[in-house]
Amino acid sequence: MDKPEEKKTNWNVVRYDNPRGIWLGFPGLCKGCGLCIYKCPTKVIHWSKELGVYGTPRVQPRMEGCIVCGMCQMVCPDCAIRIEKKPL
User: Fold this and answer.
1) Sheet hosting strand 81-85, strand order edge to edge
2) Can you give the residue range of the structural domain that contains 21?
3) Among 15, 28, 67, 78, fewest CB within 10 Å belongs to which?
4) Is residue 4 assigned to a domain?
5) How far is Cα 85 from Cα 35, in angstroms, rounded to an integer?
């Protein structure tokens, strides 16, 4: 029997911190739909100059204004964003 072909996935993580929490982005999952940009209540998420896995721009936050509400994580259809709140 032949072995199934192994596919490698890029699980690199980009991490941004502020005193309230951590914003983790997974470029290998982001398709560049922009829902997180549209839904962010403080409008701190913007397009990055770097491209994601589909050749579209990925997103990144400006952490100085991020309130770590988690809205971007909730609306991302590809689970490309994870928010970790820091205890106060």
Assistant:
1) 14-18, 21-25, 81-85
2) 14-85
3) 15
4) no
5) 21
